[in-house]
Amino acid sequence: MKEIQIRPIRKEDISGLNEIRRHPAVTENTLGLPSERIERTEEFFNRLGPDDHVFVAVTGSTVVGMGALFVNSGKLRHTGRLVLMVHGDFHNKGIGSSLLNTLVHLADHDLGLIRLELDVVVDNEPAIHLYKKYGFEIEGRLKKAHFSRGEYQDLFIMGRVK
Fold first, then answer.
1. pLDDT by residue (tens digit) across 57-116?
2. Nearest in space to 115 (alpha carbons), one of 82, 66, 74, 155
3. Segment 9-28, tens digit of pLDDT
4. According to CATH, what is the number of the domain 4-114?
5. 49 phi and psi, to 5 degrees?
6. Treating both helix axes as pointing N-terminal to C-terminal, what angle do 38-46 and 14-22 enclose, rounded to 10 degrees?
């Protein structure tokens, strides 16, 4: 596999990001849908604001992962919400770790955030293991909050406090 580059998202990444969002291994564990239309991904890109930090993992010219940190506002300005997804064909290659490392470093060293949070399907053990490696702890469980594989599934709320 070619070297992985982590960089801020660009408009030309929309098509590749949409492919990730539609991949079965991703839709099973995220809010993405297999029928995700590219217009929805374009809307996501166009709505990004100054407190939204989105990075892609690229090998050659192919987008293989996406990590995002959305900084909250007002009295929650010290917190951020993370989203991470890696194309199913590129799982277990360190891409999620590279993206998460980029986001955590940004939160800690550039943005000065105190708290990071995310949610994850309870049976997504590789992701849970990765998040724990970066100091995230399971803080709660949302019962039947996610529909995938023909059934409702629970989500863990995970948080990391600096």
1. 999 989 999 999 999 999 999 999 999 999 988 999 999 999 999 999 999 999 999 999
2. 82
3. 999 999 898 888 888 777 77
4. 3.40.630.30
5. -110, -175
6. 120
The answer to whether the pTM exceeds 0.85 is yes
Centroid of chain to Cα 58: 15
Residue 73 φ/ψ, nearest 5 degrees? -120, 175
- Give the pair of three-digit tokens for residue 32: 């993405």
What are the domain boundaries of the chain?
4-114
Q: Give the whole-angstrom CA distance, residue 146 versus residue 125.
A: 16
The token pair at 140 is 């709660």
DSSP string for 120-134: EETT-HHHHHHHHHT
